[in-house]
Amino acid sequence: MQLFVNDLTVMDFSYLCPRRGMVGESWIVDVILDGNLNDESMIQDFGKVKKNLKKLIDEYVDHKLLVPLDYTGSTVTHRSQDEQVEVRFESDDNKIIQLFCPAEAYAFVYAAEVTMASVGNYLREVIATHLPDNVANIDLKLRPEQILTPFYHYTHGLKKHDGNCQRIAHGHRSKIGIIIDGQDCLESQQYWAQRWQDIYIISTEDLIEYSQLQASGTVENPDEYYCCAYESSQGYFELVIPRSACEVIETDSTVECLAQYVYNEQKKRSGNSSLQVMAYEGVGKGAIVGD
Ligand SMILES: Nc1nc2c(c(=O)[nH]1)N=C([C@H](O)[C@H](O)COP(=O)(O)OP(=O)(O)OP(=O)(O)O)CN2
């Protein structure tokens, strides 16, 4: 017999891709449990399924950077004196992404690429060891939100957040609504989807000099990279990333600030028309700025 729970949770995370670099993602999780009935005549109480599985998914994937360990361009170095881990990633176009962060900021996937299948396998293996005896198997279906309008993928870190959003490389796949004079403006939505296709959003106050980096790795042309870092409650986070993959903004990158940023920039494009911006952060939530 099988038990299913659709829309169990949304995983918001980022991953390293040989072709796209750092990609922010939001995947919805559906699960199916295979098993026999327990003393309560249930495979497992829905309350427990939802609570336990969400906790494991949060612990192993949500708000982390997923690194494909079997990709030849991935190098991972664990610093012995503390929990800091250095990740160096060389993409197909020979650009480097380098991080130096607490171990809990990453998930290491034994695959050449991070895909729904490889992440599903990774999670299945983790969760399998936590299932009750009457449950023989679990199947996880990961899927993106069905979006019929333009969207972008962004990665960021919120150093002031006291939860896992402080991690410097977690992200989202997000719709963007631009309403001009009361009408959805497809051209403007496409413009933002293109501009922020696979973007890393940096706050100016997090920028540091190349010479200040604590990671041991180097890059050949430092002028082509942004370096950013901060200390927050989970520890020290540092990132080196190609400038071509970044947008630098003056504020934090909460979705409220991003909506305001898009509004201000869009105003320059759309002039005196009335404007409303609906910026999403992943699935089903976001901020609205308008006049
Ligand atoms: N008002 C705001 N609150 C939060 C913001 C924000 O921009 N404005 N941002 C974050 C984080 O960036 C985070 O990535 C949001 O992810 P979310 O999945 O909503 O966070 P949780 O894991 O706490 O929620 P779950 O439903 O448990 O996945 C946080 N807050």
Describe the fold and architecture.
The protein is α+β, with helices and mostly antiparallel strands. It has a single domain, classed as Tetrahydropterin Synthase, Chain A (2-Layer Sandwich), CATH 3.30.479.10. The chain has helices at 46-60, 116-128, 186-195, 255-270; strands spanning 2-17, 21-35, 65-68, 74-78, 84-90, 96-102, 106-109, 135-144, 151-156, 170-180, 183-184, 198-203, 207-208, 225-232, 235-242, 246-249, 275-280, 286-290. The strands form three sheets. Strands 9, 10, 11, 12, 16, 17 and 18 form a seven-stranded mixed β-sheet that branches. Strands 4-5-6-15-14-13 form a six-stranded antiparallel β-sheet, with no helix packed on it. A five-stranded mixed β-sheet has the order 7-3-1-2-8. A hairpin with a 5-residue loop joins strand 4 and strand 5 (84-90). The site of the ligand Nc1nc2c(c(=O)[nH]1)N=C([C@H](O)[C@H](O)COP(=O)(O)OP(=O)(O)OP(=O)(O)O)CN2 has 14 residues, from strand 1 and helix 4. One of its GO terms (molecular function) is 6-carboxytetrahydropterin synthase activity. It comes from Salinimonas marina. It is an enzyme of class 4 (lyase). Its EC number is 4.1.2.50.
Structural class by helix and strand composition: alpha+beta
The overall pLDDT average reads: 97
The major sheet is characterized as: 7 strands, mixed
Number of domains: 1
Name every ligand kind in the structure. Answer: the ligand Nc1nc2c(c(=O)[nH]1)N=C([C@H](O)[C@H](O)COP(=O)(O)OP(=O)(O)OP(=O)(O)O)CN2
Q: Which CATH-level-2 architecture?
A: 2-Layer Sandwich
EC number: 4.1.2.50
Protein name: 6-carboxy-5,6,7,8-tetrahydropterin synthase
Pfam family, one: PTPS
Family: Belongs to the PTPS family. QueD subfamily.
